[in-house]
Write a structure and sequence with these properties.
Layout: H1 15-23, E1 25-30, E2 35-37, E3 45-51, E4 53-59, E5 65-72, E6 75-77, H2 80-84, E7 91-94, E8 98-104, H3 105-112, H4 116-141, H5 145-155, H6 165-172, H7 176-188, E9 192-195, E10 198-201, H8 204-209
Antiparallel strand pairs: 1-8, 2-7, 3-6, 3-8, 4-5, 4-7, 9-10
């Protein structure tokens, strides 16, 4: 559980506090496509993603999957449900093999959230989520599909190597056929290339020019 020491929220803890934190936490490994929680599950634990990538999603009235947010390693997952003491409002699935630290939120709140430094960092964490949501809304309003795809690949250069095109298309809210066509064009122009079937950036400057 020494991974907790490497996370910015906890690296200033005293040895006593770290021992307490570890006593109320456990780590769990998840396989690709495994569900972390379902909509309606109780938010008993504060979830810290330490490796991998997960997607939080819902289904619309036609039962189509709607991606709300993708979380990368080093961040909390859906912590607003903990703060608001509500059940999870959406589902969460691993997009690759992942590891998550589960922290007993009731005990965490009791022992740690009376400290000002923790409250400030938690506010920053929520602010980042709000900014990410703003970017998500903004990117889905952009009509330039090339810019939308390029920015996603640029911002998720490591995760993109392990995500299937159908997942990327869902996140960007575009047709898979459109995504495939655009990726093929970027490969033809020497911006991207395939490495054992995985997307990798070949020309970072050219890629960034598509959305900047």
């Amino acid at each position: 559980m020494n991974k907790l020491k490497n996370y910015y929220l906890f690296n200033g803890l005293s040895e006593k506090d770290m021992e307490l934190l570890e006593s109320i936490s456990f780590e769990k490994s998840f396989s690709k496509d495994e569900i972390v929680f379902y909509k309606g599950d109780k938010s008993k634990y504060l979830l810290l993603l330490v490796s991998g990538c997960v997607t939080v999603y819902k289904h619309d009235f036609k039962d189509n999957e709607v991606v709300i947010h993708n979380f990368k390693a080093g961040t909390f997952i859906a912590e607003l449900a903990n703060y608001e003491n509500i059940n999870y409002p959406a589902n969460c699935r691993c997009e690759m093999d992942s590891k998550i630290i589960f922290i007993d939120y009731q005990k965490f709140e009791e022992y740690f959230l009376n400290k000002k430094e923790f409250l400030l960092i938690f506010i920053k964490s929520l602010t980042k989520k709000i900014k990410t949501l703003e970017v998500f809304i903004s990117s889905n309003m952009v009509e330039n599909v090339d810019a939308k795809i390029a920015k996603f690949i640029f911002d998720n250069s490591e995760e993109i190597k392990n995500l299937k095109q159908v997942k990327v298309a869902e996140v960007l809210n575009i047709r898979q056929e459109t995504l495939s066509r655009k990726l093929a064009q970027m490969k033809k122009e020497g911006i991207l290339h395939d490495k054992k079937g995985k997307i990798e950036i070949k020309d970072e400057k050219a890629l960034s020019s598509l959305f900047s």
